[in-house]
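Model it.
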Amino acid sequence: MFDFIGNKVTHCDGVSRRGFLQAGAMGMGGLTLANLLRAEEAAGIGSSNKAVINIHLDGGPPQMDMIDPKPEAPAEIRGEFASLRTKIPGVHLTELMPQVAAMADQFAFIRSLVGSAGRHDGFQCLSGFDTKSLKNIGGRPAMGCVVEKLLGARGHAPAFVDLNQGRPLVRNSARPGFLGPAYRPFRPDISHLFKRELEEGMKGELARLGKNHQVSLKLLPDIKAARLDDRVGLLRQFDGIRRQADNTRMMDALDRFNQQALGILLSGKFGDALDLEKEDPKVLDRYTPRHKQEGERFVTADGFNASRKLLLARRLIEAGVRVVSVTFSDFDTHSKNFSRMRHLVPVVDHAMATLITDLSERGMLDDVTIVAWGEFGRTPKVNGKAGRDHWPRVSPAILAGGGMKVGQVIGATDKQAGEAITRPVNYQDVMATLYQNLGLPPHETTITDITGRPQYLCDTGQPIRELVG
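Modeled.
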C-alpha cells in the first residue's frame, strides 16, 4: 500500500482536506491512493478542468519593445521597432508581435506591472512572493506546489509540471517552500527537445545544488514511493506490474478508481503527453514558426522551435496537469537588445497566438488561464552596448483565456515606459487572479505552514477586477 503523507490544508469551510479524506477512508483500512481518489470525487474535490500555463519570459522582457511602444519618444528610448496597430482600436504593439496584434481581442495587456523584487529568477512569477517571505520556515511555495497540495492530481497526471529551463531551473524557482519536498513539481528534462545553453555562472550554481538536483527522470535511491518526487523513475519500477496487468486482464477487474490510481503510477497517458512525436504532424507544424528568421540568436537564447513548448504544455493540460510552467529565454539583453529581440520575440508571438487558437478550437480556452511575464522590465534608455539593463520599476504582462474579460489594456506608463502612471498592478494581483480562476479564492483558502499557522494564498494581492470582477 502507498501512503500519501502531507501537512493539513484548511479550506474556507474549516475542514482540512487531509482530515476529510482520512475520515472517509477510516473504514477502508487506510488511505491508499485509490481510496483517496474515491473520497475526493465524493467530496467534489479535484474534479475541475481549470488549469494554468505560466510562461516566464526569462531575463526580464523589454516592455517598450513588445507591448508598450513609445513611437513619440527619442530614438534612444523608443528603439528600432515600429509600432503596429492591433485588433483593439487605439492599441499598438511593436512590429515584432504581428500575430498577437491580429488577435489582440483574445488577450489582456498589463502595461503597469509593479512590485518586482528585482531578482534574476522566476520565483516571483511562480509564487507572487519575494524569496525572503517566510524564509525562516522554508519560504513560500510556488503556486503549482500549492495546487498539488490543495487539489492534487486530475486523472493520470501530477498536478504541477515544471518545464522551466535555463535561469529558473538553475535557481530552483519552482520550489515547495514550507510544504516540504513531497510537493516538489514533476520536472522532466526536456533539453533533448529544446536546447538552451547555460551561462558559465549558472553551470556553477547548478553544480552547487548537488548531483541529485532534479534535472533527469531517475528515481533517487533515498526517496521512498510515498514521496513520489519523481513519478517516471517509479514507473520503471512498475513495468512488471504493467505486463502482468495486461496479460491477466487484471485491469478489467479493477474499478474505475483503482484504474485511475494505477494509471497515475504507470502514467501511460501522461508519458504520451510528453512525447511530441505522438502529436498530429499537422498540429506540430502549426506550432512551428513560419516567419523569416531574423536577428541574432544569443548563446543562451531559445531556438526557433521553442514555440513547441506551448504545444507540450497544452498536451500536459489535456492529460490532466493543472499547472504547467514554461520559459522562453533569453531576455537579459544588456547588449545587442534589438538584434536579439528580432530573433526571440517573434517566436513568443507565434507560440502564444497558436496556443490561444488551438485551445479555442478544442473548447479549452475558458478553462485554461495563460500568463506571460518576467522578473522585471528593461531600462527605457538604451545603453552604450545598444542593450537595455534591469528595470524593476515597471514590467509587462500578457494574459489570456480562463474566461476572463480580455481585449483590453490595463494600466499605462509615462512617455518613456519607465514608470506606471495609471492602474498599477502588483505581481500578487496577477497571482491572485490565477488562483481565483482555478477556483481557489486567494483570501479564503489557506495552507498550514510547519508552525501550524494558516497562510492565505496571497497576503496583499487582489484578483484583477478588470479581468474577473
